[in-house]
Specification:
two-stranded antiparallel ribbon, 159 residues, alpha+beta, single chain
Length: 159
């Protein structure tokens, strides 16, 4: 039998047919938090099971051209960033331009740049002593909030 092609808007999980057959759609990309997928099937019995899923509108049948087009646009589900046209950035262009930061050359690599390091300046004044930091002062206890007064109706109004 001829190969038929199918598209699933949610291929994040395996899809079960009416007879219990499980279908693993090939993930192509992510849309609205779900992975979309396509499947090519040439087994007649599995195609019958897929036809029932098409009737229930869980998946849809597509043409071979659409199937090939989806495969061309396929992204890696583990490392998808949404932009496959990203350019590589060299290590030198990723170094910080902030004041006090300088690029440190690694002598073992004969001048190849390594991870940028920042210079740490020691404070000029001494840090407070631990005794000053941990001292506890006596303070007044917190004031208790009085509950709001409720208005009471007079007995004469209630009767």
């Amino acid at each position: 039998m001829a190969t038929k092609y199918y598209y699933s808007p949610n291929a994040s999980r395996r899809i079960a047919g009416a007879d219990g057959t499980l279908f693993n759609f090939e993930v192509i990309d992510q849309f609205v938090g779900k992975w979309r997928g396509v499947l090519a099937e040439d087994d007649a019995k599995r195609q019958e099971s897929l036809a029932l899923l098409v009737e229930k509108k869980l998946i849809s049948e597509i043409t071979e051209d659409e199937y090939q087009e989806y495969l061309k646009k396929k992204t890696n589900p583990l490392y998808s960033t949404g932009n496959s046209n990203r350019r590589e950035v060299s290590a030198l262009s990723r170094t910080s331009q902030a004041p006090g930061v300088r690029l440190v050359q690694n002598p073992e690599d004969r001048g190849t740049p390594s991870t940028p390091k920042t210079e740490v300046k020691q404070p000029e004044t001494a840090v407070e002593s631990e005794e000053d930091i941990l001292s506890v002062e006596a303070v007044a206890p917190p004031k208790e909030d009085k509950p709001a007064k409720r208005s009471r109706k007079k007995k004469s109004e209630a009767e």
